[in-house]
């Protein structure tokens, strides 16, 4: 009840100021002031003011905001600890993901090997050996940084 009265008074004062502004031949400014002054009455008529007042003065609503804030703080804390420990890669490995890159020879076909004959695959070409050396440098850098 009090909120509706205050909003009505603010709107009436705004319309009065708009009338004085229109009397001074500043019609566009007067229309803008009138538009702003009708907003509080519109909010009262739609029920938004009543909902806001009941939420603002409700201890249950404020307790809910407190619970949401605590939840956000816990999420932030867990993320900070994960970032500091680097456990996201361990969690990805436990889920079945492979955090380490696959070696280049893993996808190379076994040349010269027949199915079921038990022979060994052909040795890797020299180009594959140099790429392994490149990956060993990268692996050393990643291990140095704890990744």
Write a short abstract of this structure.
This protein has 147 residues and is mainly α. The protein has helices spanning 2-23, 27-46, 48-56, 59-85, 87-94, 126-144.
What do these coordinates show?
The protein is mostly helical. The protein is 71% helix and 0% strand. The protein is built from 6 helices and no strands. Helix 1 runs antiparallel to helix 2. The longest helix is centred in the middle third of the chain and has 27 residues, at 59-85. It starts with a helix and ends with a helix.
Write a concise keyword list for the protein shown above.
single chain, 147 residues, mainly alpha, 6 helices
Mean pLDDT: 79
Strand content: under 5%
Q: Strand tally, please?
A: 0
Helical/strand content category: mainly alpha
Helix/strand order: HHHHHH
Radius of gyration: 35 Å
Discrete helix count: 6
Helix content: over 70%
Low-confidence stretches: none
How is the biggest beta sheet arranged? none
Estimate the global geometry from the Cα principal axes.
elongated
| N-to-C span | 62 Å
Helix-strand blueprint:
Elements: H1 2-23, H2 27-46, H3 48-56, H4 59-85, H5 87-94, H6 126-144
Helix pairs in contact: 1-2
